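Need tokens for this chain, all 92 residues.
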Amino acid sequence: MGFGIGFSVIRVVNVAFEVYAVILLIRIVLSWIRHNPYQPIIRFIYEITEPYLRVFRRIIPTFSNIDFSPIVAFFVLHIIQRIVINLLLAFM
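Here are the structure tokens for all 92 residues:
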């Protein structure tokens, strides 16, 4: 893979991870405030983050009605991002 194309792919992958992380962070904040779940943008955020969060909810139990799975999911997303970027860099 050429350097120009390789770095472009890495940038696109990195931006995709960052955008998803921001959407996930918005989802975390939404869980703390009252909102209309039928609002189209809110529904979009829930639909795009729920499959990923569901994986962590199955593994991590709630403690005193506090769901720590979104926080763990947020950190795991960044770990996966670093691994993917490093793998892409290794294959350049």
